[in-house]
């Protein structure tokens, strides 16, 4: 009797187990099918390539949690009351972001998981390398910096996180001093803090962080980020497979006023990093040639460059590449230096759609460059660009940069012999190779530049004032103002194809007047013709000339009258001050 009872129990248990197994398999299978990914595709690909290395596989997806309620939870916008607006605007001007708003949002807040659904089904090796997350900061707002740290702690498998290394670039704000040491004690040694003895700028501070880090992989974040669900394994897997691959997450936006988390990318579309010839960072939709190289839309893909702030790289590899060029100062151009160096010297850059990190885009840069900039910020950044192009571009391409930024020719880059030596030693390929094989889509938007026929300040003979874009964004009328000799918004260029440019923008004219417009991507031509004898500036399509109104100072096209000094213009070349 008892035996029978036991058998019956066993049978029931067995049947239940079988039913459970079938349900689980069904759920898994239907999900996989629905989203078009075989559950193990990435890992089996990895296994083929590094069979001995892969010990086990893990998916690392966290269990689902109940949605939290509260200000800014689920990445929603948090709006302050009217009586808080003073604090809000005060903090906005001090930090470039609304710290009054940030301070009311939990450091552990939830953000929406906006990954492509198939991202949940990738498997990764269990024994991914340990990572030092390096966050350099200079006078950042406390709650924003700490939310960055908390998000990493909350959303990273402990086994992969060697440490979070905070590197203080000589901040002067009181609350970033002693309080920081005591606050990080709660992380039981996972968070380490080192401080610069003087201001080094973000570039040198990152190189220092890389040297001091203890992890096999280093991963940089700006000090105002929030990492999203399961962000790290997809960044580490490509590095694990090939240590010369650098990986970059997709960077979402966190609003600097409301801290709303939202993506800047259209679902399912992929972008990659490129540049224009003035070395401004740009993005381009992934060319079809790259799309067709992949089996799944959530797979990593190659990118010519990256924005700069957020990426992972094998620590030793980064140091073998000389870290960042130590001659680069404070801010700017280091993203290109590293990108060109990696690609030309045999490595590659991959963007990883399944890894997403939010970044607060500030309205303006709230800090100055300290002693490192004995001049204004502009020439310092341009100088960085010049070091980078003088090291990595071939002569033909250098000309495009000097055409787009004529003042750069006169800047002193300092000594780049060490950089050139490194390039030689690592047997790096030419820029031509890079443009043809990696960054070929740059040309679609930014073709080779014809030389400038004239450039400089554009003086009006009658008024002795200069055309000025006033720092506006298109569409806007071009203004006239006192000629200051610094270039920037008064530095105009007329190229051999008739395009009149100022910075990355173009100048055209319509019924309302002479205007700042977006240059037509993929073209380098324009409607203008300058007559050196009469000093008139003709608009070929309208067959009229650029004229200044003597009373209103409005700029417009008028029937050409070469004797009228209000229609006479002189390009005055200038030199850096
Ligand atoms: O002197 C400084 N010392 C620092 O430690 C100046 C800054 N910093 C810190 C700062 O606190 C922050 O944590 O360096 C980090 C980056 O400075 P940001 O946030 O002012 O830079 P950014 O976001 O305006 O600029 C982008 O370009 C820079 C060029 O040098 C860096 O590469 C930034 O990391 C980069 N940010 C991103 O790529 C995020 C995505 C933006 C886009 C597109
Ligand atoms: Mn930033």
From TrEMBL:
Keywords: Disulfide bond, Glycoprotein, Glycosyltransferase, Golgi apparatus, Lectin, Manganese, Membrane, Metal-binding, Signal-anchor, Transferase, Transmembrane, Transmembrane helix
Record PANTHER family: N-ACETYLGALACTOSAMINYLTRANSFERASE, N-ACETYLGALACTOSAMINYLTRANSFERASE 7
Main location: Golgi
GO cellular component: Golgi membrane
Membrane topology according to the record: Single-pass type II membrane protein
Pathway: Protein modification; protein glycosylation
The family this protein is said to belong to: Belongs to the glycosyltransferase 2 family. GalNAc-T subfamily.
Region (Disordered): 56-87
EC number(s) stated in the UniProt entry for this protein: 2.4.1.-
All copies of domain Ricin B lectin, residue ranges: 455-572
Compositionally biased region (Basic and acidic residues): 66-84
Transmembrane parts of this sequence: none
Entries under SUPFAM superfamilies matching the protein: Nucleotide-diphospho-sugar transferases, Ricin B-like lectins
GO biological process: protein O-linked glycosylation
Cofactor(s) recorded in Swiss-Prot or TrEMBL: Mn(2+)
Record localization: Golgi apparatus membrane
The protein, known as: Polypeptide N-acetylgalactosaminyltransferase
Source organism per UniProt: Laodelphax striatellus
GO molecular function terms listed in the Swiss-Prot or TrEMBL record: carbohydrate binding; metal ion binding; polypeptide N-acetylgalactosaminyltransferase activity
